[in-house]
Amino acid sequence: MAASGAEPPCRCETLEVSAEAAAILLSFAMRESEAPAVEVGGALERLSRGLRPLEGGVVREALAQDIAACVRALQFHDRLIQQLAVIRNLLTRLTDHPLPQMAGFGALRWEELLTALRERLAEDSHHELFELLLRTGGVAPGAAAEQPDGTSELF
Amino acid sequence: MARILAVDDSPSMRQLVKLALSSGGHEVDVATDGVEALQAAEKQQFDVVITDVNMPNMDGISLVRELRRRSNYRFVPLLMLTTESTAERKQQGKAAGATGWLVKPFDPDRLLSIVSKVLT
Q1: Would you identify the CATH topology of the domain B3-119?
Q2: Is residue A123 within 8 Å of residue A111, measured between CB atoms?
Q3: Which of B11, B86, B107 sits opposite A38 (nearest CB)?
């Protein structure tokens, strides 16, 4: 059978296109999720304003606690958006700087790829996220010294 | 009651911080990044500034550094409210002049109690 005229794109090219498409899709998804989160925040604000003139009591206390729980829970949207932004930025950097030849994904080349990716990570949090995503040994060294979520420290 | 400036590039986080602080009787203004916050801080005096770290145009650590250069903000409590929790980043915040470091997600009552503490 005769081969068709156009050669199929190499794996590198298709990976770059996929990474770019993934970055764009992530941006859209992040933007789309913002309006509902703001809407929930606005509704909570109205509920809280409505509660203020009410006298203290069991029902009022319970509602105030529920609002506080919603305030805590809704912050995970912001955290998710930040993590997605890191991934989007990584994908964008991949398309800005072509990946090394990846055909075969042999062990040696995989390690080279990981090294190249790690060099492009700017912040500790990016490194930690990268390690978590790869599951290559969990959180980076020093993570145990970090503050857990929701903690505070006055200097 | 204090006049507080909350700085965050996330619209939902601005809302939540404002909601938490207003429920404690504070008057809250918001800014979307360090540049907007500096403009707001020059127009009026705030008793406390609560800022995110990672923001476009000007990040929270640069904002704290800039505010500390102004005589009217030299002793004003400046709190960082961020998902960043590494010792290195905290040290940068402290060196810039931050009063405290709060890791998101925040608890509304805890935030109010910290604001009361830094105001006394």
Answers
A1: Rossmann fold (3.40.50)
A2: no
A3: B11
Per-residue pLDDT of chain B (120 residues; tens, 9 = 90+): 899 999 999 999 999 999 999 989 999 999 999 999 999 999 999 999 999 999 999 999 999 999 999 999 999 999 999 988 888 999 999 999 999 999 988 999 999 999 999 998
| Residue of B10, B52, B81, B90 to mutate for A, most A C-beta atoms under 10 A | B10
Q: How far is CA B65 from CA A15, A45, A49, A110, B5, in A?
A: 42, 32, 35, 42, 16
User: Which residues of chain B have a CB within 8 Å of the CB of A150?
Assistant: 103-107, 110
Contact A81 B104 (CB under 8 A): no
| Domain residue ranges in chain A | 12-99, 105-142
Structure tokens at A4: 């068709």
Rounded CA-CA distance B22/B78 in Å is: 18
Contact: B100, A152; criterion CB under 8 Å? yes
